[in-house]
Specification:
By secondary structure, this protein is α+β, with helices and mostly antiparallel strands. The protein has a single domain, classed as Alpha-Beta Complex (Creatine Amidinohydrolase). The chain has four helices and 13 strands. The two termini are about 35 Å apart. The chain binds 2-amino-4-trifluoromethylsulfanyl-butyric acid (MF3) and cobalt (II) ion. The site of 2-amino-4-trifluoromethylsulfanyl-butyric acid has 10 residues, from loops. 2-amino-4-trifluoromethylsulfanyl-butyric acid binds next to loops.
């Protein structure tokens, strides 16, 4: 079942989305050499508390997870693709970080992710991040009435593959609204013209994940959450919560820092 949101509900989701955007901006600003992942989680917690919002991540336990998620932020470093648990690891020069964050406010959820480098960036990482953002923009651009889910998937997948990157098998975006994960699933690769027709009032979290080596294989780390690339190559991730409206896609988690 896909719930179509009213304009007022989309405005309320935007309120939640703005908290997410503020938190990610604060996390990126705080992330420097020597800063621990737990410290970044604390930065995100502060933004939630000040906004009077709660975390849809904390305590979350989907069927694949052996333990409830222990943080409010996912921080995935280097060969970690997504769902990295904040721990005592301290960021090093040249690390590639993905920060993924959600907030619930007034009964509505926003979900967004950014990737960035710490210290002196590797050129290959900058290219990977830039392509991930371009894939996200292409997916958002396809989120229009008259298209289908497969058009979003195809737009994302085309950008990734043209640049030679891998796409983790079987992982992608999702519907979002009163809960973080709703129908429909939004794959990061697919055939145009297939899948659920897009309608005004649908809200989607669109989230390309790219693997630098061009391979698609991943595994779950012993912590039961972190997805890592099988070949150890680096990965990047970007995500926005987007509403489909009659006048085009509306990004609900937009940030001041782009
Ligand atoms: N944005 C991620 C997703 O949609 C984060 C959720 S996993 C959590 O899969 F457990 F940390 F909540
Ligand atoms: Co998501």
């Amino acid at each position: 079942m896909v719930e179509l949101k009213t304009d007022a509900s989309i405005d309320a989701m935007h309120e939640a989305g703005q908290v997410v955007g503020r938190a990610l901006t604060a996390v990126r600003k705080a992330a420097g050499i020597g800063v621990s992942l737990l410290e970044l989680d604390a930065v995100a917690r502060d933004v939630l508390r000040e906004a009077g919002a709660t975390s849809p991540f904390l305590g979350y336990r989907p069927s694949f997870a052996p333990v409830p998620y222990p943080g409010v932020l996912c921080v995935s470093v280097n060969d970690a693709i997504v769902h990295g648990i904040p721990d005592g690891y301290r960021l090093r020069d040249g690390d590639l970080v993905s920060a993924d964050f959600g907030a619930e406010l007034g009964g509505w959820v926003g979900d967004s992710a950014i990737s960035f480098t710490v210290g002196t960036p590797r050129p290959a990482d900058l290219r990977l991040i830039e392509t991930t953002e371009r894939a996200l923009a292409a997916g958002i651009g396809a989120a229009v009435v008259g298209n289908r889910i497969g058009d979003i998937a195809h737009a994302i997948g085309t950008v990734c593959r043209a640049a030679g990157y891998g796409i983790p098998d079987g992982f992608g975006g999702h519907g979002i609204g009163r809960r973080m994960h709703e129908d429909p699933g939004v794959p990061n690769e697919g055939r145009p013209g297939r899948g659920m027709p897009l309608r005004a009032g649908m809200a989607l979290a669109i989230e390309p994940m790219l693997i630098a080596s061009g391979r698609d294989d991943w595994h779950t780390a012993p912590d039961g959450w972190t997805l890592r690339t099988d070949d150890g190559s680096r990965a990047a991730h970007a995500e926005h919560t987007v509403a489909i409206t009659e006048s085009g896609p509306r990004i609900l988690t937009a940030r001041d820092d782009g």
